[in-house]
Amino acid sequence: MTDDYVHGYSEREAERLHDQAGTLRELLHFDTLFPPGSLVLEGGTGVGATTALVVERNPEVRWVSLDASWESLAEARAGLRSSPAGGRVRLCGGDLYRLPFADGTFDHVFICFVLEHLTRPEAVLAELLRVLRRGGSLTAVEGDHGSCYFHPETEAARRAWQCLIRVQADLGGDSCIGRRLYPLLAGAGLAGVRVSPRTVYCDPSRPEWMEGFVKKTIIPMVEGVRESAFARGYIDRPTWEQGIADLHRTGEAPQGTFLYAFFKGIGLKA
Asked: Burial letters for 143-167: b for 16+ Cβ neighbours within 10 Å, e otherwise?
């Protein structure tokens, strides 16, 4: 798979992914459940931040996690060693566009924050359906960077935020893909597609969300495209620094607020 990961593969990004997974665990995955005995494929496991959380919820499920980055797989393997669920996860390298599995191998497929990074998400969905048995489900979770609202809102903060969207688009991805999840899944041929929005709302009365989502998940994600945004001329350094400072204010008392929508879609292979 040649698609670029807009956030990079730094230690700080790995830390952000673990913070994100822990913060969003209940919101996104309280209902990520599979029948006992199922064989599930996770496409794009990354550093395994979400893998351990979901596998722990499914103690009688067999799990195969695939990723194109060997560095990420090594980190996932190290993390899973300390997880009670680690022994039930088989990690393997591979290309989502050319999966190393026979037709109909898996009972269910799970992908989380994967489609947004792909230049050809339709092709990957077709390949995932190829290895899914008839009657099996595909679950996809995606964010939508165009769905956010925050206070206080400044022009500099908005410009910094838009840099993330623009850089990812330059790489062939779509950081606003959440709103496209239903047509993507239905267009792939899945039956009975259901999409549910999962909204994060943060204000000072919810300090755990201000810390876990705004400060540890969202702002570091924007900060990750800093050099790419400068190189492309999307923003000047003073405006960037002011924008990041203003985004931090949205995660602080007494008046900061932040809202963002994720989308979770499930469909069946007819």
From this structure: bbbebbebeebbebbebbbbbbbbb
Neighbours of 216 (CB within 10 A): 19
18: which 2 tokens? 């673990």
Q: In 10 A of CB 223, how many CB atoms?
A: 16
* Paired sense of beta strands 190-202 and 257-269, if any: antiparallel
Query: Where residue 49 falls among pLDDT bands split at 50, 70, 90?
Result: confident
Task: Give the three-class secondary structure for 184.
Answer: helix
Contact at 8 Å (CB) between 270 and 129?
no
88-122 pLDDT, tens digit each: 899 999 999 999 999 999 999 999 999 999 999 99
Angle at 80 between CA 43 and CA 34, to 5 degrees: 50
The token duo for 262 is: 């994720």
Say whether domain 11-269 belongs to CATH 1.10.10.10: no
- Residue 157 corresponds to which amino acid? A
Cα torsion angle, 204, 163, 141, 217, sign: negative
Domain boundaries, the chain: 11-269
What does each C-alpha distance from 94 to 64, 69, 98, 101, 129 come to in angstroms?
11, 8, 8, 10, 16
Best CA proximity match to 41, nearest among 151, 164, 176, 132: 132
Paired tokens of 109? 């497929």
Map residue 25 onto helix, strand or coil.
helix
